[in-house]
Each structure stands twice: as C-alpha cells, then as structure tokens.
Amino acid sequence: MDIHFGFSYIGLVFLLMLMIPNIIWGKNKPKDYDKYVKNENKVLLLFERIGEILVTCLSLYSSYFNYSFVR
Asked: How far apart are CA 40 and CA 64, in angstroms?
C-alpha cells in the first residue's frame, strides 16, 4: 500500500463524525463526573491522547482515502 500525502476530505468527514458527539457530551457532562475522573488510569489516558493525535494526523494528511472520480 502506497500512502499519498495531501489533504484528505474523507478523513475530515470521519473526524467530524467522531468529534461532534464528544463535543456535545463535553457540554452536557453527567453530574458528579469530576469526582470520578480523578480515578482514571493516567497511563491509559496518555495512550488515548497519543492515539487521537496520530489518527488525526494520518486521516487528514493521507489523500489515499479520497474518493477518485477518474477511473
């Protein structure tokens, strides 16, 4: 598989589909959520953040995922 670097509008659509529910949830957090968030595993949280950054970069800058109208 050959990765073609460039902007991917399909990657942007997928990221928006993932981010919009998270933004809505962030604005409407359950009550008493702040006392439970202290118990999260810090290592898993770090891996989650690193994965989010890598997926974002790969999906936006890999034009391989773009739909081609030319056959």
From this structure: 36
